[in-house]
Design a protein that fits this description.
By secondary structure, the chain is mostly helical. Helices cover 72% and strands 0% of the residues. Helix 1 runs antiparallel to helix 2 and helix 2 packs antiparallel against helix 3. The longest helix has 34 residues. The radius of gyration is 18 Å and the shape is elongated.
Amino acid sequence: MSNSIANISSSISTIPSAATPATHTSDSDGGFGSTLTGAIEQVEQVHTDAQQQISDLLQGNRQDVHNVMIAVEKADVAFQLMMQVRTKIVNAYQEISRLQF
């Protein structure tokens, strides 16, 4: 799962600069690309945290199954949200590509 998130993150960094508006000279201005990359990194961090908690539980370093399950569910919800956002972005791109200028 983390490989798929890393693949998404790396594919976003290859978006051509022509796709960004001329008013943004870099992503440090808080552009769409940097916002999306930051959100993906947050999802990846939540996933990594859940994996670490599971590993600790299996090794016997934790006794609180409740908090581990909460972390796993947070990671699942974050991933599902990211996939919904991706779907909306793809749909918006397809809609724009159908427009005739």
